[in-house]
Amino acid sequence: MRTYHILNGDALKEQFPNTIEGDILVARECLVDGEVKSNSLEELFQVRAEFLFEAYDIPTEEYKVQTIDEFEKIKNIPSHTKIYLWFEDDLFCQVNFWFVCYLLNQFTENCKTYLIRPEVHSPYGFAALNQHELEQIFEKRKRIDNLDKLASLWSSYKKGDLDQLVNIGEGLRTEFPFISDAIQAHLDRVPTHDNPGRPTLALREIMKELDTVEFAPVFKEFNQRESIYGFGDLQVKRLFDEILAAN
Fold first, then answer.
1. 3-state secondary structure of 25
2. Which of 15, 97, 111, 132 is the 20 to 30 A CA-CA neighbour of 125?
3. What is the domain partition of the chain in residue ranges?
4. Is the dihedral of CA 64, 89, 116, 16 positive or negative?
5. Number of C-alpha atoms within 13 angstroms, CB side, residue 196?
């Protein structure tokens, strides 16, 4: 039976144990950041390409080659294969995980799907594990028998249906308790008329406590306090710059 490993990033690919056999695909997106509302995959990828170019100067062709083409490979995974999903508990990883589950639910048939995740949530995730430890958590992989429910998380997230997202997360709590924590982090970051959202509030507080407008120490502290978001430096820097511009 053919085997596929879908990884949460290139960092894991670089340290992936060569003792674990299978084809490697990488989910190179940050769907947690920016617009995702769309009526088709084609429209989604167009929306994402436009956002990533405007926000981070990522060329459209680079997005196609690095990201869209990889998702196309996921769509084309043949039936009757084993698929191992390597994703962490933070919101960044979870949104990508939900999207990958959506693709698998839509386009694959009769596959056995498993989730591999670090046993302890931390700001470092898989990066904190050596090859032997990665082999160990692979042995503790969890079979996914409700791919359709995980896929529906993406549909709710994409539509911005927060109530439905919470309800689905609650239904999955017994089997995947970490999903509700990620959903709560998402709820907390949604701005209201008098609240810019938890990440921005946390950054303001850190900048005030450290008495600095230097990004590096603020980013380091944000990662420690708000590791549930899993934001990279690009996502945090964008929020950081917005705070500076507002001041």
1. strand
2. 111
3. 3-189, 198-246
4. positive
5. 12
Provide the whole-model pTM.
0.97
Full pLDDT tens readout for the chain, 247 residues: 899 999 999 999 999 999 999 999 999 999 999 999 999 999 999 999 999 999 999 999 999 999 999 999 999 999 999 999 999 999 999 999 999 999 999 999 999 999 999 988 887 899 999 999 999 999 999 999 999 999 999 999 999 999 999 999 999 999 999 999 999 999 999 999 889 999 999 999 999 999 999 999 999 999 999 999 999 999 999 999 999 999 8
Distance from first CA to last CA of the chain, Å, rounded?
58
Q: Is the dihedral of CA 43, 45, 48, 53 positive or negative?
A: negative
Output DSSP code: residue 77. P
What are the residues whose beta carbons fall under 8 Å from the beta carbon of 98, sequence distance 6 or more? 150, 151, 153, 154, 157
Go through 117-132 and write b for each residue having 16 or more CB atoms within 10 A of its CB, e for each that does not: bbeebebebbeebeee
Token duo for residue 171? 């239904």
- Of 156, 94, 71, 86, residue with least CA distance to 117: 86
CA 183 and chain centroid, separation: 12
180 close to 189: Cβ distance less than 8 angstroms: no
Q: Which helix (H) or strand (E) holds 153?
A: helix 147-159
Give CA 46 to chain center in angstroms.
19
Token couple for 51: 């956002």
- Residue bearing tokens 């690919």: 13
Please tell me the distance from the alpha carbon of residue 147 to that of residue 183, in angstroms, as a whole number: 18
